Amino acid sequence: xxxxxVYASYYDALYRDKDYKAECDFLEQIFARYAGAPIRTILxxxxxxxxxxxxxxxxxxxxxxxxxxxxxxxxARQKAxxxxxNIQFYQGDIRNIELRRTFGAVIAMFAVISYQTTNEDLxxxxxxxxxHLEPGGLFVFDCWFGPAVLGQRPxxxxxxxxxxxxxxIRFAHPTLDIMRHTVQVDYxxxxxxxxxxxxxxxxxxxxxxLFPQEMAHYLxxxxxxxxxLCPFMxxxxxxxxxxxxxxxxxxxx
Length: 253
Description:
By secondary structure, the chain is α/β, with parallel strands linked by helices. The protein is 28% helix and 38% strand. It is globular.
């Protein structure tokens, strides 16, 4: 089943409570601490509808976004145009996209790397990031942390948002595969007006959870030095098995 197909239509509504401003503040905190030179250009791998690209562009960065979903990019371009922002968006696969230029930083936010479910996928995405960085450039991403996933175990969840007099309800049913280090999340999204179902969408997303040594290995093979693992948006604390989402900072060597 296509990932981020019709589901993309509800993406911004479902994640309207996500604090993209705070996440961009966190990225700038990382840049200030780990970048050897001021960051001016950013490649956003898996940019989605532009949740990070737009606020970063507003702060003066030259941002280029890549996403596999045409539906997501259509919304990102619309939002950038409405905001008067000059952001380049390209449709492509982060495992093999080639822009033939380099950036000060490459980011892959909101578990984009966890969508790389095989060793080959992971290695290819890391090589893409490295190809688009000069030595000393930063690669920053977040992902699902293996010890936390296995310790806490994924559970059924639901979310309800109300917008324009309608309700959007998302049900998420996860299936854990400990041998493949993945969780298949089956989503059902309903859009309702009063008690009438206006739309129904089903999608399955397979997410990989990662462990410190495998990240260090694949980053090293791609030409990176692992600089920092920390809880998501908490730079000054080490990760524990309670931290499902973590941030990873690496430097191109």
